[in-house]
């Protein structure tokens, strides 16, 4: 789950991190009214992507009329493929220095990592690429957490002595927010030192683990909508995990791991998967719904069904696919490979009702599906 700035910064404030006064506006009139209350402000496009400033989505305003005028131009823009539907009207801050701070999940250490740089702002990523030393990377134990000692060492020697205590407190609170929110990424860019030596978060990027939604019910409604195709949205409404890809071999498998493996093998044999679609876990009884959605993709030239049952019975999943196949009667070839709980019943069902012999080896099923897709594409 990704959170736009207007939703993320109040969550920082709850954890003791200073943020400017702000109000959300959905049209120029609301923007003008907000600016009247706030005074000199910044009009900021609210979209779940970066580079807003470079795209013209952030403007300074000295009056309500300025704010209204900027909002009129910004609302309706498209930034990074996202339409701008609202703006944040935020009090201007007198900036003395811009920093960067983030807590991320580190794949190398399989734990949290603090990122800190004295080069905050729009081009921090480019600066870090040119000079790796510009970004301090500090992995730490999730058991011990980000201690004051670790935070103090991370900012040492950068000429920040006057605000070091404030800065250390901000970094420790940033980690508290990261843990409390089940975050995968919590970034402040820029984290500024103001003219009166205050440490303030001027922007925030927050990504929360989707699997933590049951623990984060209070903030789930605040998350930005996901960018989905029509079929992806339809699948999501049915509780299915479906991602459209650009290939021609359709895939149905149970479990994310088996689905990814199947996609890799398709690529290995020269094909391209048309989708990610898994019917594992609680979705294992939804094979019929899954197939109906998948077959709406006109790019699919063949279909590969790969079931491996443990808890989920392969005969139950196969029944759903076979019933949907008979009902929809699609004009593409289908290939099965079935193993695990209920496989004898599942194989017999496929043979009897579709007249198809499932492959014993997944590799053979994949090869057949890839070959069929290529032949139909060239026909």
Task: Outline the structure in words.
This protein is of the alpha+beta class and about 375 residues long. It has three domains: about 20-90, ATP-grasp fold, A domain (Dna Ligase, domain 1); about 95-220, D-amino Acid Aminotransferase, Chain A, domain 1 (2-Layer Sandwich), CATH 3.30.470.20; about 230-379, 3-Layer(aba) Sandwich (Rossmann fold). It is built from twelve helices and 18 strands. Strands 1, 8, 9, 10, 11, 12 and 13 form a seven-stranded antiparallel beta sheet that branches. A hairpin with a 4-residue loop joins strand 8 and strand 9. The two termini are about 40 Å apart. The relative contact order is 0.10.
Strand and helix layout:
Layout: E1 2-3, H1 5-14, E2 22-25, H2 28-38, E3 41-45, E4 58-61, H3 64-74, E5 78-79, E6 82-83, E7 87-91, E8 95-106, E9 111-117, H4 124-130, E10 136-139, H5 148-155, H6 164-180, E11 183-194, E12 199-201, E13 205-208, H7 230-237, E14 241-244, E15 249-253, H8 256-268, E16 275-278, H9 287-294, E17 302-309, H10 314-328, E18 334-340, H11 343-354, H12 362-378
Parallel strand pairs: 15-17, 17-18
Antiparallel strand pairs: 1-13, 2-7, 3-4, 3-7, 5-6, 8-9, 8-11, 9-10, 11-12, 11-13, 14-16
Helix pairs in contact: 2-3, 5-6, 9-10, 10-11
């Amino acid at each position: 789950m990704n959170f736009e700035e207007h939703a993320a910064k109040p969550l920082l404030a709850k954890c003791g991190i200073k943020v400017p006064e702000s109000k959300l506006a959905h049209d120029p009139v609301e923007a003008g009214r907000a600016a009247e209350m706030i005074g000199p402000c910044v009009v900021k496009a609210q979209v779940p992507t970066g580079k807003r400033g470079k795209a013209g989505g952030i403007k300074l305003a000295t009056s309500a009329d300025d704010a209204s005028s900027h909002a009129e131009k910004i609302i309706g823009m498209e930034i990074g493929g996202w339409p701008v539907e609202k703006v944040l009207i935020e009090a201007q801050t007198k900036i003395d220095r811009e920093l960067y701070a983030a807590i991320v999940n580190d794949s190398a250490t399989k734990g949290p990592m603090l990122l800190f740089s004295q080069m905050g702002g729009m081009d921090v990523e480019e600066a870090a690429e040119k000079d790796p030393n510009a970004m301090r990377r500090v992995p730490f134990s999730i058991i011990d957490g980000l201690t004051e000692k670790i935070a103090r060492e991370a900012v040492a020697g950068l000429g920040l002595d006057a605000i070091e205590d404030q800065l250390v407190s901000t970094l420790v609170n940033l980690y508290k927010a990261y843990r409390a929110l089940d975050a995968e990424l919590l970034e402040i860019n820029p984290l500024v030192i103001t003219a009166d030596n205050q440490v303030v978060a001027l922007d925030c990027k927050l990504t929360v683990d989707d699997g933590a939604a049951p623990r984060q019910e209070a903030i789930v409604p605040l998350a930005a909508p996901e960018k989905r195709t029509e079929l992806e949205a339809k699948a999501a409404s049915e509780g299915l995990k479906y991602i459209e890809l650009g290939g021609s071999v359709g895939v149905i498998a149970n479990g994310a791991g088996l689905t990814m493996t199947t996609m890799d093998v398709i690529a290995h044999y020269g094909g391209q998967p048309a989708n990610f679609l898994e019917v594992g876990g609680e979705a294992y009884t939804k094979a019929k719904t899954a197939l109906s959605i998948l077959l709406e993709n006109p790019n699919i030239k063949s279909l590969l069904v790969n079931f491996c049952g443990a808890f989920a019975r392969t005969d139950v999943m196969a029944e759903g696919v076979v019933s949907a196949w008979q009902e929809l009667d699609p004009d593409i070839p289908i290939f099965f490979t079935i193993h695990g709980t209920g496989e004898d019943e599942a194989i017999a069902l496929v043979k009897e009702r579709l007249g198809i012999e499932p492959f014993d080896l997944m590799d053979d099923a994949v090869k057949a599906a890839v070959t069929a897709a290529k032949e139909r594409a060239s026909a």
